[in-house]
């Protein structure tokens, strides 16, 4: 029981938002640390230029927010990297990248990150995004990315991606969709352009990473 006259403090301003910076470009990393340290409610608890170093620091300091570059020297790719850091239950993950391809952003958002911020953003936006992510106001996405009007996939396109992800050839896909292999090839090329990918192999890899190849029972 609380005694009469007891003062209960509800001021949480003293608790700073702990931030871990993960960036393989030394100049960018130093600049970020210097600028974010000046924010009165933010505390940079560590910096790392590799996945392994970042994971060690994350386990040591349990940061509230991890500002994560997608391209690290010891990483196997954006999807796996994002999933690894999203598995750290004590931290929220805010991607900080120069990557502007909608397909890549979709992959990492599906992996569970809380936001996707471009490196071109001003410091004030970066600091505000960290606060938003910490307080659960997600997803946080750079305005430049949302203005790109990411293409909506039709049910037919999703079906095609599913068949590609399962390893079917054009002839087999054509037989299932009651169309010619040449038509399938044109549909694939249209999807490559729509998703802004490099070619058929990139499209198949993207489809697999996005989970299109999974069976319903998986």
Automatic annotation (TrEMBL):
The modification 4-aspartylphosphate is found at residue 69. It comes from the Bacteria. One of its GO terms (molecular function) is DNA binding. Residues 18-134 form the Response regulatory domain. CDD domains: REC_NarL-like. Gene3D superfamilies: 3.40.50.2300. GO terms for biological process: phosphorelay signal transduction system; regulation of DNA-templated transcription. Residues 146-211 form the HTH luxR-type domain. The keyword Phosphoprotein applies. Keywords: DNA-binding, Phosphoprotein. This is Response regulator transcription factor.
């Amino acid at each position: 029981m609380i005694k009469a006259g007891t003062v209960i403090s509800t001021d949480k301003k003293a608790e700073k938002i702990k931030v871990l910076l993960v960036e393989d470009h030394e100049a960018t990393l130093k600049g970020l640390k210097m600028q974010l340290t000046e924010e009165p409610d933010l505390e940079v608890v560590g910096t790392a230029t590799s996945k392994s170093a970042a994971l060690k620091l994350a386990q040591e300091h349990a940061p509230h927010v991890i500002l994560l570059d997608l391209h690290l020297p010891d990483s196997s790719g954006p999807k796996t990297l994002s999933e690894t850091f999203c598995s750290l239950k004590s931290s929220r993950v805010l991607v900080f990248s120069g990557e502007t391809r909608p397909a890549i952003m979709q992959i990492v958002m599906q992996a569970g990150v809380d936001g996707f911020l471009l490196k071109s953003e001003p410091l004030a936006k970066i600091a505000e995004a960290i606060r938003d992510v910490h307080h659960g106001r997600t997803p946080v996405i750079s305005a430049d990315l949302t203005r790109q009007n990411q293409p909506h996939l039709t049910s037919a396109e999703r079906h095609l991606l599913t068949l590609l992800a399962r390893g079917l050839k054009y002839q087999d896909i054509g037989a299932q969709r009651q169309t010619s292999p040449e038509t399938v090839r044109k549909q694939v090329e249209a999807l490559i352009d729509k998703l802004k990918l490099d070619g058929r192999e990139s499209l198949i890899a993207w489809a697999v990473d996005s989970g299109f190849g999974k069976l319903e029972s998986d």
